Amino acid sequence: MSKIGFIGAGSMAESMIKGLLKSGMMSNEDIIVTNKTNEKRLEELQARYGVKTDFARSFIYEEADILVFALKPKDAESGISEVRPHLHGQLIISILAGISIETIQHYAGGKSAVIRAMPNTSAAIQQSATGIAVSHEVTEEQKKKAVELFETIGHVTVLDESQLNAVTAIAGSGPAFIYHLIEGMERGASELGMDQTTAKLLICQMIAGAANMLQDSGKEPAELRKEITSEGGTTEAGLNTLAAYQFEEAVVDCVKTATKRAAELNEMFSASTYK
User: Fold this and answer.
1) Spelled out in words, what is the top-level CATH class assigned to the domain 4-159?
2) ∠ CA 147-80-98 to the nearest 5 degrees?
3) Closest CA to 34 of 65, 11, 10
4) Domain segments of the chain: what residues?
5) Which of 23, 40, 46, 95 is the most exposed place for a label (fewest CB within 10 A)?
6) What is the per-residue pLDDT across 193-209, written as a single tens digit (0 to 9) for each?
7) What average pLDDT does the structure give for the chain?
8) Phi then psi for 100, rounded to 5 degrees?
9) Using an 8 Å Cβ cutoff, are 71 and 33 in contact?
10) CB within 8 A of 138, min separation 6: which ones?
11) Percent of the chain having pLDDT more than 70?
12) What is the mean pLDDT of residues 169-175?
């Protein structure tokens, strides 16, 4: 059985840990977590999930055959360079938003086997939409292992790396955009006198039902929208308000801006390497 080491212990690492344990693919003894400065955070994860922690990094590199870089993009150079002397053929999985495989390999000191992945925090409930891209050095066996790993926390799509910035915007950042929409719907319900608990329940069920309908019906979203929009009805009135505020244009720009930012992050944090 493989052991997995998380370099970084933030919310995305925790979501993956929670999902892996829920799936039963790995036991808490198979998961090792470390970070650079926050030992208390490691203690929290150990108490919550029973995983092994290694603040001193005395055994993580020897025991783990998969290393997950779960750092913030700004810490990519220092974080990966610190790991570099301890690399001896482990599979590297990076979940750093916007940081390219080429940049990761440079910081890692050679043509390491690198899989770049973009899961989201729904990994905690095994509902992540994850896009992955692989370097040329990744073997079919390693690729298969990575896909199986991410399948335990949701759906996996293997893509060309050129598409991963858009995946970051849609699948990685997307949940935050949906949560913001829900905030607005809850506020609207509250201003109409509905209590928050009831509003949240209705909204959550509505979104889950709409997502399942879109997935199972085989119809396009525009077709489904038109099916529930009656001339002169409530849906049309609400959609007209969204159109007045240029809702669709705002969503398109939101996705494009997030994608652009992912590309900027790579440029920003690889600048010292290539200039």
Assistant:
1) alpha beta
2) 60
3) 10
4) 4-159, 174-258
5) 40
6) 999 999 999 999 999 99
7) 92
8) -70, 160
9) no
10) 91, 113, 114, 115, 146
11) 97
12) 90
